Amino acid sequence: MTTATGLSIMVWSCDPQHPERAATPFIVAQAAAVLDLKVEMLFTAQAVLWLKTERQDDLIGFGPERLSVRHYLQTAADLGIDMRACSQAAHALDIATDSLVPQCTGMGGVAAFVERGQSPEWRTMVF
Predict the structure, then answer these.
(1) pLDDT, tens digit (0-9, with 9 covering 90-100), for 10-34
(2) Coil, strand or helix: which one is 119?
(3) Within 13 Å and on the Cβ side, how many CA atoms surround 4?
């Protein structure tokens, strides 16, 4: 049996209309990174908006412990988590790459996410 060495997370339903959901994928990604897994996050659909510089002061999560998007992105980056914007979603929402946060490591796509799911070394999650 192959041991998983990576976790690929698709952030899909945690868009700005649902900020109470948005902290969870970051927290899971951080936990996996602390457990020495290679972690990738793909922000797709409306969730790609979290990677825009103008959203960085938005508070996400729920209850009194909500934190800024900036906090979650920087913590993830500090842990070596690879965060990518879905190229199709960015195109559909007319998001230019120069409007993305510096923690975003580039563009990605669903095909790469699906490919990770086929690898015995990787696990996938969708939020």
Answers:
(1) 999 999 999 999 999 999 999 999 9
(2) coil
(3) 15
Q: Would you give the distance in Å from CA 100 to the centre of its chain?
A: 13
Flag whether 30 is in a domain: yes
* Per-residue DSSP letter, 61: S
**Helices (DSSP H) in the chain: which residue ranges?**
23-34, 69-78, 87-92, 110-118
Q: How far apart are CA 35 and CA 108, in angstroms?
A: 24
The overall average pLDDT reported for the chain is 96
Element (H, E) at 85: strand 82-86
Report the CATH number at residue 95.
3.40.1260.10
Number of structural domains in the chain: 1
Mean pLDDT of 42-65: 96
Mean pLDDT across the stretch 43-57?
97
